[in-house]
Structure formats: structure tokens, C-alpha cells
Specification:
199 residues, alpha+beta, Ubiquitin-like (UB roll), 3 domains, four-stranded antiparallel sheet, 33% helix
């Protein structure tokens, strides 16, 4: 056979094989772990954990074990529909091996629900619910202007208002002086603070 005729035939054969190879395997080159060709589902053997993360940062494991039967067969899309992020859920997948759902209700845990802390509201001493740094709601504005207090107390109250930005040693000091586990201690501290007034 003539070498001039076999070379174009060989190039043509390689081009055809490359095209077929791309057609067969090329579609999988862009597939990611997040979007498998066949969607994974929650199975009976899938490990499942339901956690609650409270506003104070405390965590509670509500359930840990095999996935409940009502989740069996759900795809990633089905799980996200059942636990929507618009309702405070975060979902972590490693299907079919594991599924973790985290609920963030925006409330304090049972231990911290009764806590109160001092802060500032519009230039006045204020009482907020929950522990420092928990983002608690305003409970009371005290009839004690911030500028009537000594500079050291004004600084501490302003630091309490920006608690997360403080270094750990300042946070520990603020917790001792500005955070209260019951209202009796809170009102005792407010009376002491009132004595520092410099009107």
C-alpha cells in the first residue's frame, strides 16, 4: 500500500476515535461533586444529625442516628425544600453517607433566656436580654444618661455594646461586670451604677 494514502486514513481514524471518545466521556468532564450524573438520595443507612444553634452560641444535638423514614428517597433538592434557609436552616450534605441539618431559631437556650446585660441606647444606659454578644432585644432604657457617668463606666458600657469586637480579656471583664443571670443582680448593679452619677 502506498504511504501517501495510509497517512490521511490514519489521521482520519484518529479524528473519528477522538470524536467518539469526547462524545462518550467528555460530558463527565464538567460534572462536579455537587452535581453528580445520578443524584444521590437519603437512604435508610444515611447518618443524620439535627442540631440547634441558639443566639447565645450554645449548641444542642436534637437527634443523631439513622435518617428518619420521611427523608428516605429525598434528593438534595428535596432536602433543601424540607429545610429552607429562609426559615433559619443550614444543610450539610455528604450523600448518601451523611446529612446534617442545623436549625437557628434566633432565640436563647433555656440557660441563657433569663440573662440580662447592660449596654447603651441612644445615649442612655439600657438593659438587653440574653448574655453579652448574643444580640438580645432591648428590654428597658434606664433613666441614667451615659454622659452622667464617670469615663471608666462610659467606656465599659460602650465596650459592652460592641462586645464581639473586644479582645478576650476585655470580654471576660465585661461579663463579670455587665452580664447578669437574674434580675436581682441586675437591679443591684443598676443601683450601684446610679450612685456613680455625676449630675
Amino acid at each position: 500500500m502506498d504511504r501517501k494514502k495510509t497517512l490521511p486514513a490514519a489521521v482520519l481514524a484518529l479524528a473519528i476515535l477522538a470524536s467518539v471518545g469526547w462524545w462518550v466521556w467528555g460530558a463527565n468532564l464538567n460534572a462536579t461533586a455537587e452535581e453528580p450524573m445520578v443524584p444521590w438520595t437519603v437512604e435508610k443507612a444515611t447518618a443524620f444529625r439535627h442540631e440547634i444553634v441558639y443566639a447565645c452560641g450554645d449548641r444542642e444535638i436534637r437527634y443523631q442516628g439513622q435518617a428518619p423514614s420521611e427523608l428516605h428517597g429525598l434528593t438534595k433538592a428535596g432536602v433543601l425544600e424540607r429545610y429552607p434557609d429562609t426559615q433559619g436552616w443550614s444543610v450539610f450534605f455528604d450523600l448518601p453517607a451523611e446529612l446534617v441539618v442545623v436549625e437557628q431559631p434566633g432565640t436563647f437556650c433555656a440557660e441563657h433566656a433569663g440573662y440580662r446585660h447592660l449596654g447603651v441606647y441612644d445615649g442612655w444606659v439600657a438593659v438587653y436580654e440574653g448574655p453579652l454578644g448574643g444580640g438580645g432585644q432591648l428590654r428597658q432604657v434606664v433613666e441614667l444618661p451615659l454622659d452622667s457617668l464617670p469615663e471608666s463606666w462610659r467606656r465599659k458600657l460602650c465596650q459592652a455594646a460592641a462586645f464581639q469586637a473586644q479582645p478576650p480579656e476585655i470580654q471576660a471583664e465585661l461579663r463579670r461586670e455587665m452580664e447578669f443571670s437574674d434580675e436581682k443582680d441586675l437591679y443591684s448593679a443598676l443601683e450601684n451604677l446610679d450612685e456613680w452619677r455625676q449630675d
